[in-house]
Amino acid sequence: MKTALFQLLQVADEPVVAADLANDLWLEGSRETKRRKIRALVKELRDDGNWIVATIFDGYWLTHDYSLWRDYNEGKKIEAKRIFAEVSRRKKYVELIGQGKLF
């Protein structure tokens, strides 16, 4: 399945959304289940060293452009830092109001 996804991304001339990839691979399940399966396969391909980038609206595409790959990964790092900071801020707030055990 992973190989088939890689081949689809190789021949695509534009980004492809997860729903279309799932349909091309004949994946079964709800729309969300299909999307999750595609995300898992993309993760495996990335772990294998393939430069796959994505946006929420455009979908996935395979790149050979190092600067695009680097910028994509830097953006992910910044977003992760922002999320961790927000979680930390919320934890402190609920501890202040006496609901610290919620997290």
Tell me what you see in this structure.
The chain is mainly α and 103 residues long. It has helices spanning 2-11, 18-24, 31-47, 66-96, and strands spanning 52-55, 59-62. It has two domains: 1-63, Orthogonal Bundle (Arc Repressor Mutant, subunit A), CATH 1.10.10; 65-103, no CATH class. It is 63% helix and 8% strand. Strands 1-2 form a two-stranded antiparallel ribbon. 11% of the residues are buried. The mean pLDDT is 86.
Radius of gyration: 18 Å
Largest sheet data: 2 strands, antiparallel
Q: Would you identify the regions where 5 or more consecutive residues have pLDDT less than 50?
A: none
Mean pLDDT: 86
Fraction of residues in β-strands: 5-15%
Structural class: mainly alpha
Spatial sequence of strands, sheet with the most strands:
1-2
Overall shape: it is extended
What is the strand tally? Answer: 2
CATH superfamily of the largest domain: Winged helix-like DNA-binding domain superfamily/Winged helix DNA-binding domain
Helix tally?
Answer: 4
Please identify, by name, the CATH architecture of the largest domain.
Orthogonal Bundle
How is the CATH topology of the largest domain named? Arc Repressor Mutant, subunit A
DSSP helix fraction:
55-70%
In a few lines, what is going on in this structure?
The chain has 103 residues and is mostly helical.
